[in-house]
Amino acid sequence: MLTRHRDVTSLIARSAPLRPCRRYPNCSALVAGGGFCERCAKAKNAAPWKQVGKTTAQRGYDAAWQRCREAYVAEHPMCEVCGRDLTRAVHHVRSLADRPDLRLDSENLLAVCGEACHRMAESRQSQVVEYKRVGGVGSIFRS
């Protein structure tokens, strides 16, 4: 008879199929039942942008940011990455951690429609910076 939580967890882990870590293709570890491998889970929880215990205002997203964001979305109603969908988020081209002085600068903002376009903008940082430098008209990655 299983009496300890640890025994139940190991029983479930042994019976679940092995799947790639959720960071695949960046991580090649196999995980029982999916999810993150132990190493990626630790890295994810230790991410510097996950400022645990701080309010949104303490992280730089106060009333001034909300006004700036609303004005930027009004100016850029369509995603600046794909050009197809409505803006749902505003991305800081240069991160707040690196350049807090650019927090409310519209030259440092980018309208994105969702997670996929947000990730694409983050992964192609140099192209985004160049797009903003030349005036940022249209969409970045769509011709």
SS field, number of helical segments: 5
Q: Could you describe the largest sheet, including whether it forms a barrel? A: 2 strands, antiparallel
What assembly state would you assign to the polypeptide chains in this entry? Answer: single chain
Overall number of domains: 2
Strand content: 5-15%
Q: How would you sum up the global shape?
A: globular
Helical residues, percent? 25-40%
Tell me the structural class. Answer: alpha+beta
* Strand order across the largest sheet: 1-2
N-to-C SSE series? HEEHHEEHH
pLDDT < 50 runs, ≥5 residues: none
Q: State the end-to-end CA separation.
A: 63 Å
- State mean pLDDT (0 to 100 scale): 77
Structural summary, described in words:
The protein is α+β, with helices and mostly antiparallel strands and 143 residues long. The chain folds into 2 domains: 5-43, no CATH class; 63-133, no CATH class. 35% of the residues lie in helices and 10% in strands. It is built from 5 helices and 4 strands, in the order αββααββαα. It has helices at residues 5-15, 38-45, 63-75, 115-123, 125-133, and strands spanning 18-20, 30-32, 89-92, 109-112. The strands form 2 sheets. A two-stranded antiparallel sheet has the order 1-2. The radius of gyration is 20 Å and the shape is globular. The model has no long low-confidence stretch (mean pLDDT 77).
